[in-house]
Amino acid sequence: MTLGPPFHHGSDGPGGWWIVDEPELHLGDDIVVPDLAGWRRERMPNFPDTAYVTLAPDWVCEVLSASTRKLDVHDKRLIYAREGVGHLWFIDPAARTLEAFEFHDGRWLLIATAQDDDPIRIPPFDAVTFSLGRLWP
Question: How much is the pTM?
Fold first, then answer.
């Protein structure tokens, strides 16, 4: 939720996003729950007052673990691509890494990697820089 204050709330940042922790997404016939998801408010002016969301997010972040890695990296990635999610981040707390992807021309392109305490300024949240080290305990 490091992105929450500058992008969700507009504190020291541009605002303009709904950033939600573990939203239930109903995308086609699939139900998925990403660790974090974000929608540009221009696409979704009001966050729905429902138990789940049917509009694909603009950004998804999955926190990888041994028990969810295959589901997150393979299965969910295919669903997010099919639904037109533009940005996908994978955070691996054990390796202290972040990989960021953009979806272009039917495939995910790796646009950035970071590790340990690297400064992060990655689309779609490149208006603000923060230290990746803020994510590690």
Answer: 0.90
